[in-house]
Amino acid sequence: MTHMTCGLEIIFLGTGGGRFAMITQKRHTAGIRILGESINIHLDPGPGALVYSVMEGLSPQKINAVLVSHCHPDHYTDAEVLVEAMTRGKTRKRGLLAASRSVLRGNENCQRVISSYHQTMPEKTISLEKGMSFKIKDLTVLATEARHTDPDTIGFRFETTKFGDFAYTSDTEYFEDIGKYYAGVRLLLLCVMRPSGRPWKGHMTTEDAVKIVKEVMPEQAVITHLGMRMIFEGPVKEAKIIERETGVPTIAAMDGMRMTFAEEINVRLPVKKGQSGLNAFI
Question: Could you give the domains of the chain?
Answer without folding.
Answer: 8-266 (3.60.15.10)
